[in-house]
Design a protein that fits this description.
Bound molecules: FE2/S2 (inorganic) cluster
Radius of gyration: 22 Å
Distance between the termini: 32 Å
Largest sheet: 6 strands, antiparallel
Structural class: alpha+beta
């Protein structure tokens, strides 16, 4: 651990109020919070070492032990528990030959259990390297481990387990927006209409979370803003949120079966999106 690197991270923060983000940055660099780093944070921010350690041990996301290259978290919250999460966790333990909180001997995978990942309706939920896996079963554990080790979780059009599928409907008239006749990435697409400089035409979106292609009837530039419309009732689907990545307005659709909302950036070339399930944004 380079003391100067830690000091640079701390000095980027703004003091006591930034302790959590300072610790996040240190953990991102070292995969855990070394003791020496905690001491430096205390000295540089003027907080007591007890307070800094209190923050580091309060949040389960922080680790005081080195973590593996990949991180797998299995939810054991109530909703996931009643859907069989214990069996899923037992299978991870068996296949990885470790207990929650431990890392495989080759330092490849750290495995932990958590209480709720905010996608209860789709449980059991497992998150590997930031990718959500829904409705995980004992049989799906092997695929998740293999894809995590191989680093193939985020490839567009890749493994069926890199995300989860959902069905979208119009938030105004409630009718389905799914189009089984035009699949994208092997899943039915979501079909809406969009107003562009070339006129009004259709746009199809993937229904598999983690895939971001936008297929349009008309050719438009990547910078073009698209006004989304329901193909059934003609309602403007533009919501009250702006994209966190490019500030363009976001189109809003309901996610069926999970009390959810999906927001997609209306700029053609932007992948900005937000999925909110049961009040939690993932
Ligand atoms: S209980 Fe598992 S995601 Fe909420």
């Amino acid at each position: 651990m380079e003391t100067e690197d830690i000091l640079n991270i701390i000095r980027k923060g703004k003091g006591k109020a930034e302790i959590i983000s300072i610790l996040e940055d240190i953990q991102e660099k070292y995969t855990y919070l070394p003791e020496e780093a905690l001491r430096l944070v205390a000295v540089e921010t003027g907080c007591s070492l007890t307070d800094v350690c209190g923050v580091a041990t309060f949040y389960k996301a922080f680790s005081l032990k080195p973590r593996g290259k990949h991180c797998v978290s299995a939810c054991l919250g109530t909703a996931c528990h009643v859907r069989g999460a214990e069996t899923v966790v037992a299978e991870f333990k068996r296949q990885l030959d470790l207990e929650p909180g431990e890392t495989t001997p080759d330092n490849e995978i750290s495995f932990e259990t958590v209480n709720c990942l905010g996608a209860c309706a789709l449980g059991p939920i497992v998150v590997s390297d930031g990718h959500y896996h829904a409705n995980v079963t004992k049989r799906g554990v092997k695929d998740i481990i293999e894809a995590t080790r191989a680093g193939t979780l985020g490839s567009i059009g890749g493994s069926k387990d890199r995300g989860f599928s959902f069905e979208a409907s119009c938030p105004r008239c409630g009718r389905s927006l799914m189009d089984i006749a035009y699949p994208i990435d092997g899943h039915p697409s979501i079909r809406i209409n969009v107003v562009t400089s070339a006129g009004t035409g259709w746009m199809r979106l993937p229904s598999h979370y983690g895939s971001f292609v936008k297929v349009l009837e008309h050719v438009v530039s990547e910078d073009a803003l698209l006004t989304p419309l329901c193909p059934h009732c003609g309602s403007d689907l533009q919501g009250d949120f702006d994209c966190l990545e490019c500030n363009a307005p976001m189109g809003t659709m309901n996610v069926d079966g999970g009390a959810g909302i999906i927001r997609i950036c209306s700029r053609k070339g932007c992948n900005g999106h937000m999925l909110t399930l049961n009040g939690a944004t993932i």
